[in-house]
Amino acid sequence: MSEKLRVYHFHNGGGGGVSSVIRNLLRYSENTAIENHIIFTINKDLRPVYEMPLLEGAASQQIFYYSAHWNFYYTCTQLSKLLPDEKAVIVAHDWLELGMTGNLGLQNPVVQIVHGNYDYYYELAKKHSESIDQFICVSAAIYDKLCSLLPERKADIHYCRFPVPSVQFEEYPNRLFHIFYCGRSLDSENKQFKILPEINAKLKSLGSTVHWTIIGKGINGDVVKDMMDQHENIVVHDELRNQKLLQLLPGHHIFLLPSLKEGFPVTVVEAMKAGLVPLVTDWEGATGDLIVEGKTGFYFAPGDANGYADAIKVLNDNRQLWKQMSEAGRQKANKMFDPSINTTGIESIILKAAEGCVKEKFKKKVYGSRLDQPWLPNFLVRGIRSFSR
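The structure assignment produced for this chain is given below.
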């Protein structure tokens, strides 16, 4: 029996789309040649205690705590000890694991999943290009942008959609339109929760009463209801696990996400699979191959409360139009984000990285100050940085 390929996903412990992608990759993996492992990299200065989620399909899960006060070479060395050998594949979802591969010159195969249409992810790809063997872009817009930034690596850049499970769909003939908003942090400037009260006020002026389901931390639920000027037909949750969120989605009509910036939100796909029509900001084409204006959803300029309200009014008044868009979106999301097919596609790129990683990789200091030197003991660096705070 041949030895399995050990694949290590590194995750910073945050929730959201990246967490969902990793969870679904493990859940829908059917390749018996691959063994998936998870390493949670937790900055203990920001999060002293981390409750590790148990992920279906993981052969092992470990938590690695580190501090920004440490010598970065010490951090990298300690983190690298969790890898069994140079054959183990590193799947990078953020910066720390890429910093480790570069600073130490690890010879392991490396796959970077570029999760968002953000400068942050593109800078990671450019800075660590010499360490990365294959790039996976989760949207066509991200693929095009990365190819333009790294034309010499185009053969190693792939557009592969992430897996999203099927979501229950049910007809909901309730007279009130049910609107679903999931912002994680309601006090985040990016998530633009602040325009929801404007949308609701506009809808009331147009004679439309709607039911709101609002999910997000940062603002007390009663305060949210006061801000919305609505204490009936509104439910507020500060946080929900993904499984509970998926159970809530069916029965809603609209998925509202007015964020200023997003990559390719997993929640949009989950909502569309449940039959919700997405009303979102135009994130520079990030979701252009899924949300087609007027057919599977609507786009708006940032902060366009009146535009959102007018579109909700139209769909509320014309339930046949809503039903057509709901069905078209549901079919498109299910076809594009098939969990088994997309998992197989991503795993084929991981296997390609493992088979094709033959070039020698060299040490390159990407992160760190003058204190971050291999020869400086960590206790000394930690002490200096703690004293100078």
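Interim note for the steering committee: The radius of gyration is 23 Å. The chain has a mean pLDDT of 90.
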